[in-house]
Design the sequence.
């Protein structure tokens, strides 16, 4: 890579050729203010606040779009630049309502910060001239057009990052407005509520309904963790204040999702209204009674200890951590020799021993085969990557039923029996990728093996930590009727239990390690309260095989404990030592997963 | 030594900025050694003296024709005019009226309020006429110094007045005293 030397504010700066002035300045720690620019988005130079003076240039130029060249001399805070920025701010403040005290973003607003930085202590142009509407039709966040500065970040996030193309700009000049589709209310549009626009908005135009007015950024804590909602494992930040979760934000620095989240990850977990299990319970004379952890675990240990290996059944949800699955497999499969173990969700067929690609390959591909998987429904962030590749010209072939969410974007939709046609097309491509899920038949998946070496392969697993659950042998074909003692690790999975509970013998002793009350807890003889996504630490393995950390943001509700901790305590009651601390268990689990 | 004359008045505001001025606490004793408050809404004398003052301080937005007159009179009678608070600088809370329009705000307040029976919109010649737009005072008179904040901090008042007494004209408040809300 060619390195270009330039001078910024009399300081020598070197940056790779092709960098913009803004990128070169950022690298050297020189701060140039921006509004419409965002590191994750394509620069458009719309707001002009980043203007700088470049020797030899006729006018001030935008640092975010102008590439550097050898010997360039740049001034970022010269009197002429400051005068221009103040003028730009005066213009921005003059349109719509940018009066801070009754705005939700006050204190965290990028426009307000620039007002402070450049001493905008009053408005020199008439303001408030036209009232604009507020659109609160979306469930999770609202748009106050009066606060909008038309920077277009939301539009670019929607189009370029999520490839959903819901947002656009309509009208011209002072009448310009962000709108959805053909100017319909946001709530009735093609918006998928991924919230990426909300996360990139620099002002209070987009406002999260749940966390609004709950505290400024400086009053909150941000805990980096991994999303627990599907097998992609997006990096995210949980924003908390005083032990309450306020908001979830995408983590721009994580490779898997690079800041993107979906509705399932960003909003739904915050609106879960299911009733929590808050203390250990034992069924006494037909009713569940709260008891101490010690009593509950002892009761479980007694039943397990007196049963023989064939009488024990273990059923786990894939939202369990690596640590919990490791301990569960050690305790039941190895120590107690249980073979009747099962997983609560279907699993993608195992095609290869070694990894044949990653999610990052999607955007590099020219032909994408989606076989028996519906990422729009099950792994939305992966569907964003697919749609983004389609925008860039990749051909999308969906081999699945007619209700697959990717069909509106696909060039071809084939039945499973026509898999050979899809394979033929992929064979002719430069860089094909196969995304396959549990929906494929044996025939189709074995046919796909033909593309080995040619195509990248990524399994899109159902559930969350399915990959680790499979590695630990939980996808073993569970027989409910054989279990006399049934240990279930359901965690927070929404499972009605019908398919299993009706087949379990009435005398079977059922243990439910669960976060919420459900038909399962109604049937259970012992209920062990389990911490949810925000309350537990550990690690998860994503569908690519990446092991990622989960961090605890808030204290568990009531007496709930992390999934792995409960199994570890149970192992102790059964006299088995399976690792003492979380670090130790994590290391052992990670070794097994390799 | 003659003391510097200061007059204050309020327009469409809430008196909060005057309260914030009083929040300079015991420093006011020291201030009074150098300053004479000729008139203010909270003293017996309400109007700035005809012979003029050095510093005029105005709180509140321009909402009606009366506000315009008060602002203009203060401007004529003072050498240095300071706009204090978000209302005087930006229009502030009263400017929320602009988002619905003056007539709709009057209707809602005097005719459509749930408790009103046979309401009328006050229309006495003694009252100022509501303007179509609520603005900061900078829209009708020249202002020498803006101190935004709702209210501005007591230290912002102290800083501005002591700078003026020292013979310096503060152009923009220092960052730590500069606040929008």
Sequence:
């Amino acid at each position: 890579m060619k390195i270009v030397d330039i001078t910024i504010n009399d300081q020598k700066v070197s940056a790779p050729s092709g960098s913009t002035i803004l990128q070169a300045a950022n690298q050297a720690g020189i701060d140039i203010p921006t509004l419409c620019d965002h590191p994750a988005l394509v620069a458009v130079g719309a707001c002009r606040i980043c203007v700088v003076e470049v020797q030899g240039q006729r006018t001030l130029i935008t640092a975010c779009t102008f590439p550097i060249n050898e010997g360039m001399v740049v001034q970022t805070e010269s009197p002429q630049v400051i005068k221009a920025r103040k003028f730009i701010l005066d213009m921005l403040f003059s349109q719509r309502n940018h009066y801070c005290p009754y705005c939700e973003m006050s204190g965290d607003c990028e426009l307000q910060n620039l007002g402070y930085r450049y001493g905008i202590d009053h408005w020199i142009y008439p303001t408030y001239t036209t009232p604009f509407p507020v659109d609160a039709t979306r469930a999770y966040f609202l748009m106050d057009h009066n606060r909008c500065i038309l920077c277009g970040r939301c539009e670019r996030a929607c189009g370029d990052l999520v490839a959903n193309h819901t947002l656009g700009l309509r009208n011209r000049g002072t009448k310009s407005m962000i709108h959805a589709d053909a100017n319909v209310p946001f709530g009735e549009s093609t918006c998928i509520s991924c919230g990426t626009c909300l996360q990139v908005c620099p002002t209070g135009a987009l406002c999260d309904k749940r966390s609004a007015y709950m505290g400024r950024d400086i009053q909150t804590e941000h805990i980096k963790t991994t999303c627990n909602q599907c097998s992609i494992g997006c990096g995210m930040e949980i924003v908390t204040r005083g032990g309450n979760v306020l908001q979830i934000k995408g983590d721009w620095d994580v490779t898997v999702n690079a800041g993107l989240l979906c509705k399932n990850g960003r909003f739904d977990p915050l609106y879960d209204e299911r009733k929590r299990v808050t203390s250990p319970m034992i069924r006494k004379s037909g009713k569940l009674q709260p008891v101490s952890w010690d009593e509950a675990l002892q009761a479980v240990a007694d039943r397990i200890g007196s049963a023989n290996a064939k009488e024990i059944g273990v059923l786990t949800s894939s939202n369990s951590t690596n640590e919990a699955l490791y301990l569960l497999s050690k305790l039941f499969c190895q120590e107690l020799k249980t073979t009747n173990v099962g997983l609560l969700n279907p699993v993608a067929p195992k095609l290869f021993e070694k990894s044949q690609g990653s999610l990052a390959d999607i955007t590099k591909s020219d032909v994408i085969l989606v076989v028996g998987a519906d990422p729009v429904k099950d792994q939305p962030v992966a569907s964003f990557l697919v749609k983004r590749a389609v925008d860039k010209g990749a051909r999308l072939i969906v081999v699945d039923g007619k209700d697959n969410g990717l069909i509106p974007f696909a060039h071809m939709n084939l039945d499973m029996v026509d898999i050979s046609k899809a394979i033929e097309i992929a064979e002719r491509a430069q860089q094909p990728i196969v995304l396959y899920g549990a929906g494929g038949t044996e025939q189709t998946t074995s046919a796909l093996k033909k593309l080995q070496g040619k195509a990248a392969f990524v399994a899109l697993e159902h559930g969350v930590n399915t990959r680790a659950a499979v590695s630990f042998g939980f996808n073993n074909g569970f027989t409910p009727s054989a279990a006399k003692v049934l240990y279930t690790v359901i965690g927070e999975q929404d499972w009605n239990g019908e398919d299993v509970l009706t087949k379990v013998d009435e005398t079977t002793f059922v243990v439910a390690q669960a976060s919420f009350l459900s038909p399962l807890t109604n049937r259970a003889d012992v209920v062990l309260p389990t911490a949810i996504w925000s309350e537990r630490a550990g690690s998860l393995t994503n569908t690519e095989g990446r092991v990622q950390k989960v961090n605890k943001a808030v204290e568990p509700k009531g007496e709930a404990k992390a999934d792995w901790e409960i199994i570890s305590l149970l192992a102790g009651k059964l006299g088995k030592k399976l690792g003492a601390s979380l670090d130790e268990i994590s290391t052992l689990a990670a070794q097994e997963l390799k | 030594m003659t003391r510097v004359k200061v007059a204050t008045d309020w327009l469409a505001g809430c008196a909060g900025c005057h309260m914030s001025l009083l929040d300079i606490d015991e420093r006011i004793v020291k201030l009074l050694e150098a300053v004479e408050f000729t008139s203010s809404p909270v003293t017996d004398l309400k109007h700035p003296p005809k012979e003029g003052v050095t510093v005029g301080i105005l709180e509140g937005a321009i909402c009606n024709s009366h506000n315009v007159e008060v602002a203009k009179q203060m401007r004529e009678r003072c050498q240095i005019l300071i706009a204090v608070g978000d209302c005087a600088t930006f229009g502030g809370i009263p400017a929320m009226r602009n988002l619905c329009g003056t007539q709709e705000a009057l209707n809602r307040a005097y005719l459509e309020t749930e408790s009103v029976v046979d309401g009328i919109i006050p229309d006495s010649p003694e009252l100022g006429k509501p303007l179509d737009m609520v603005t900061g005072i900078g829209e009708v008179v020249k202002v020498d110094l803006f101190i935004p904040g709702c209210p501005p901090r007591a230290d912002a008042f102290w800083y501005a007045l002591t700078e003026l007494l020292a013979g310096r004209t503060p152009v923009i408040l220092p960052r730590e005293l500069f606040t929008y809300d």
The mean pLDDT of chain B is 93.
